[in-house]
Prior knowledge:
The chain is of the alpha/beta class and about 400 residues long. About 30% of the residues lie in helices and about 25% in strands. It is built from 10 helices and 16 strands.
Amino acid sequence: MAQPQASEGDRTGKPPLRVGMVGYAFMGAAHSQGWRTAGHVFDLPLRPELAVICGRDAKAVRAAADRHGWAETETDWHALVERDDIDLVDICTPGDSHAEIALAALAAGKHVLCEKPLANTVAEAEAMARAAQEAQARGRLAMVGFNYRRVPATALARRMVAEGRIGTLRHVRVAYLQDWLVDPAFPLTWRLRREQAGSGSLGDLGAHIVDLAQYLAGERLAGVSALTETFVRERPLPSAPSSGLAAVSAAGTGQVTVDDAALFTGRFASGALAAFEATRYATGRKNALRIELNGERGSLAFDLERLNELEFHDGTGPGTHAGFRRILVTEPDHPYLEAWWPPGHGLGYEHTFVHQARDLVHAVAEGRAPEPSFADGLQVQRVLAAVEESAEKNSVYTPIAA
């Protein structure tokens, strides 16, 4: 498919990359910010064009289009995928529709960006990865949206690990803590229903930390051992009991069918050990993600609540100077920062989506496979499935003698 030419009204002279996005809620807003901003900050080879946004509620999707700068709207994603004036389909819907939309978009000759987790099941993710591989042979590319790879501090950490700054990896420990489910009166939204979300904190938060751990380590997990728990098993329905839930009580509540928290250990292929915690019940924690890597020569640590900082301990120095030091990741030779503000002027969460758009535009223009690929998303899905399987097997505790 030939790349469309720049319009007469475009002064950049660059051909457009016409984006159609399915979904317009939290992630839709974040992705819109990325597409809208990337070309104004970075010198991109293609010009992202917010062409069409799609959602089932015509009035709501029109409001989202006006708010975020999309030119047109659709209420049927099938119609969006079939449009000849769309080059890339961006999927920001619940997990139960990822596979169907992505497979249709790739078959229709579109590039695809799909939010994480890639799918709700390993079988769906396998089908998506196969389709992406076949589409790549036809010049169509697919990427999964793990935006925490695009924090400059985590990208710098990856560079330092690859350069051998911490030596052979020994440990990775990572936790992602939120508290938005602490109130038992919080309603039964789609994120608490397995048929839509696939899993709970495991897929929502665990997918992020599994991908980030593997990305920073530069290797994959080989096995896991896990525990999961659902603390509040029944919640009030967000509307009338006619919402279609299979298990609805007379009191207007429904069953929570996903995990609230997941704890698991893992071993990387090299033998390095890992510990993971993902929960939506950490009272007082809003969006706390922290990861630490320990190697034979040093350690690195990142905390999302200190987004522009990376902690580094150089274990090769004298013991009298031992300890972590702060790297302020705002220098122009740090990842992504060449186009932003002077040193010391920090970035925020939304910039990860700008960087995501930037990386994908370059990949499309250069015809090279973007990262993380659908194959990377499949690997994460396999880890999540192994965690669930292990948790089921470990559901009976071995009692500890007094």
